[in-house]
Structures are given as C-alpha cells and as structure tokens.
C-alpha cells in the first residue's frame, strides 16, 4: 500500500519551529468603529453608516473602553480586560484612592501591546466623585490624553 505521508528530500517534517517564527515583531494596530462615550453609541455618518476609526483613534477608543469596563463582570471579555475602579468607591483617603486609580489604570492599559506608557495623571475631586485624566503613549510615540471618572 502506498504511503499516505510520503517523505522526499525537499520535505522535512519537524516539530521544532524556528525561534521567532511565531512571534510577532510589532503590535497590530487595527481599525475600529468610532464611539461616543458620552452618548453611549456609535458615531454615524450623515448617511447613517457607522464611521471607521484609524489606527491611533482605534487604540484610544480601546483604552477608554478598557478603563470604563468593569473587570470580571462580562463573560465575553478575558480576565485581563477592564478595570476595577468601581471597587474604590468610598475606600480610604483621597491620596490612597488617587494612588490606586493610577495603579489600576496603568495596569489596565499596559495589558495592550500597543501601549508604551501611561503617565501625567491629574485628579479633580467633586464630593465623592473623582475625575481624572492621564497621558497615554503608544509604541509609535503618539500621545493622547484620556479622561474618566470614578463615582
């Protein structure tokens, strides 16, 4: 009976892959749909088509959504996605909460390979609510400032 898996000199069967063959050298910046976080809906064109975000804008939208999505609440997201900011409500002093916001936001955003750094945090307290902003930098050294609130 003929061999179902013939081997010739030009075919080499190995289980070992070359180092770096499966590794991706650069994070992938993809496209996304533009989203209005204040209105809670996708941004539509005048013809009622969803508008497309370019590479940088898609990354910024990902960052804002990751901060605003509670971690572990939705089964569709991995355990690495989202933040635990809502756990801070009414816990400790303002300086402790600011430190925790900075740590949690930084951990959340650095989970994405496109994010290089998170810094320059600024906090504004109104009663028990804390509005904060920070500067994010991607691996292409493009910077953006994002804002969010912890109530």
UniProtKB/TrEMBL annotation:
This is DUF2634 domain-containing protein.
């Amino acid at each position: 009976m003929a061999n179902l898996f013939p081997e010739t000199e030009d075919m080499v069967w190995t289980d070992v892959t070359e180092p770096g063959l499966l590794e991706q050298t650069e994070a992938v910046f993809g496209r996304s749909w533009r989203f209005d976080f204040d209105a809670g809906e996708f941004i539509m064109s005048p013809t009622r088509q969803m508008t497309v975000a370019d590479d940088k804008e898609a990354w910024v939208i990902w960052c804002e959504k990751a901060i605003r999505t509670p971690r572990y609440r939705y089964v569709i997201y991995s355990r690495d996605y989202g933040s635990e900011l809502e756990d801070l409500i009414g816990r400790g002093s303002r300086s402790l909460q600011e430190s925790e916001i900075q740590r949690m936001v930084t951990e959340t955003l650095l989970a994405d390979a496109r994010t290089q750094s998170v810094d320059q945090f600024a906090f504004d307290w109104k009663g028990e609510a804390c509005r904060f902003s920070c500067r994010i930098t991607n691996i292409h050294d493009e910077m953006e400032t994002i804002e969010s609130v912890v109530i």
